């Protein structure tokens, strides 16, 4: 039997039992840290289950940390820890996630694509680079869609603080790892062009409309919040109202523009496997005794697809940095050069040095994908900054109808996300820049991602 704990957090589902964990440990040889020795004869006699993350730290799945007690001679079998990822509990959201087969896509990334990418680097630099992700021990679609992963916490890995954002040291480490991820995937796609064929595109129906609705609500909510603080924000209150109006006009097509931009590979772009949801809650860091980050692992590969590096970069830069880092003169340019240098070095190791983008080419690719920055800043960042006691409720958002009155109700329900003082500070900094770059102008989109 399993025990569940964590007030206000997900209750362990009935399917998450000792038999499933035993199956995973037998398949995966023990689940990473904690002593080794597990394998085909592993016997699990009990499991203790708790929520693996706090409210607001995950949206497309429920995460559970499992401590498995192993049977052995004299009861001295020891303990193993794993993380189990299952579909969300809310009925509407769960149905859409299962229909979109996101767990199958993520499992293909963990079990096939990422190991191939890691082997590309290992072949040219044996033992030099750490893994990109947690190890997947088991995945299946029965009794529901789920993945069982090694528990990175056993290796000292932990999330960054969501509310405060990521400082420069963590951002540099994350971007260097992302550069290697992109470079290794570029090499894999050259060697095996169909490497991503089995990974379903997350932007296809029915999940596409779910996120499109959330994006519309977020941009409208941000615009409504701006109108409330506009009279106090600047002597030219009319300018802030005009920016709010521009955001509201972008809302209906914001997600379509975002999806087209993130799935697009233009002539001259480096085609890579994108993480697709590269924000601070989808990476875990290991820190030294001085609390300096020394290693990182990526998680949540449900949105991975082929695109250009600029999409992951924009998504990260406008959703995950702390305000001190993001606002410091030259800091973002320095981070981009950190990424570009690591990408160049990895591509050279892989025999693709001539494919490394110049600073100008990378900037041009980012400038042409403003829709990604807009969604990151106005849809992801408010969730990043929200207080844990009032997190975004995707199930309630899906329950709201599409009528004008119901749409206004949805905006009002989530108003606390957009009225946050720290979020308002960021908006005052980035929106004038968005306007200058033309990112608030309505644009035509080509449906390059649907089947």
Automatic annotation (TrEMBL):
Residue ranges annotated for the CHK kinase-like domain, each copy included: 147-349
Gene3D superfamilies recorded: 3.90.1200.10
SUPFAM superfamilies for the chain: Protein kinase-like (PK-like)
Matching Pfam families: EcKL
InterPro entries: CHK_kinase-like, EcKL, Kinase-like_dom_sf
Domain of life according to the entry: Eukaryota
Protein name: CHK kinase-like domain-containing protein
Top-level taxonomy: Eukaryota, Metazoa, Ecdysozoa, Arthropoda, Hexapoda
């Amino acid at each position: 039997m399993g025990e569940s704990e964590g007030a206000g957090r997900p209750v362990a589902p009935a399917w998450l039992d000792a038999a499933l964990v035993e199956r995973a440990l037998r398949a995966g040889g023990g689940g990473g840290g904690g002593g080794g020795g597990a394998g085909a004869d592993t016997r699990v006699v009990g499991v203790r289950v708790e929520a693996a993350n706090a409210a607001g730290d995950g949206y497309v799945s429920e995460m559970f940390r499992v401590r498995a007690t192993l049977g052995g001679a004299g009861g001295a079998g020891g303990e193993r820890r794993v993380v189990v990822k299952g579909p969300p509990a809310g009925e509407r959201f769960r149905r859409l996630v299962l229909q979109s087969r996101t767990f199958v896509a993520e499992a293909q990334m963990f079990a096939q694509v990422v190991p191939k990418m890691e082997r590309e680097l290992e072949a040219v630099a044996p033992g030099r680079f750490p893994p990109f992700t947690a190890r997947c021990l088991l995945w299946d679609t029965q009794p529901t869609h789920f993945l069982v992963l090694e528990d990175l916490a056993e290796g000292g890995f932990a999330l960054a603080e969501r509310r405060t954002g990521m400082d420069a040291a963590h951002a540099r480490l994350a971007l260097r790892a992302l550069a290697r991820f992109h470079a290794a995937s570029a090499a894999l796609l050259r060697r095996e062009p169909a490497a991503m064929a089995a990974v379903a595109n997350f932007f296809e129906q029915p999940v596409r409309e779910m996120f499109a609705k959330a994006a519309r609500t977020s941009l409208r909510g941000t615009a409504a919040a701006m109108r409330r603080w506009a009279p106090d924000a600047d002597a030219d209150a009319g300018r802030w109202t005009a920016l709010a109006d521009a955001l509201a006009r972008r809302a209906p097509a914001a997600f379509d523009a975002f999806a087209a931009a993130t799935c697009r590979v233009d002539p001259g772009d480096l085609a890579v496997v994108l993480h697709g949801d590269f924000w601070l809650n989808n990476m875990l860091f290991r820190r030294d005794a001085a609390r300096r980050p020394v290693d990182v692992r990526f998680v949540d590969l449900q949105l991975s697809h082929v695109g250009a590096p600029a999409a992951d970069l924009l998504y990260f830069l406008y959703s995950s940095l702390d305000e001190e880092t993001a606002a410091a003169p030259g800091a973002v340019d320095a981070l981009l050069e950190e990424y570009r240098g690591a990408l160049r070095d990895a591509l050279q190791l892989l025999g693709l040095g001539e494919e490394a983008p110049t600073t100008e080419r990378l900037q041009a690719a980012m400038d042409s994908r403003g829709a990604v920055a807009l969604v990151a800043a106005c849809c992801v960042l408010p969730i990043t900054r929200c207080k844990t006691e009032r997190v975004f409720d995707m199930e309630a958002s899906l329950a709201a109808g599409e009528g004008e009155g119901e749409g206004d109700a949805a905006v009002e329900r989530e108003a606390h996300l957009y009225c946050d003082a720290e979020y308002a500070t960021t908006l005052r900094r980035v929106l004038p820049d968005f306007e200058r770059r033309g990112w608030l102008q309505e644009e035509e989109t080509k449906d390059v991602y649907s089947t």
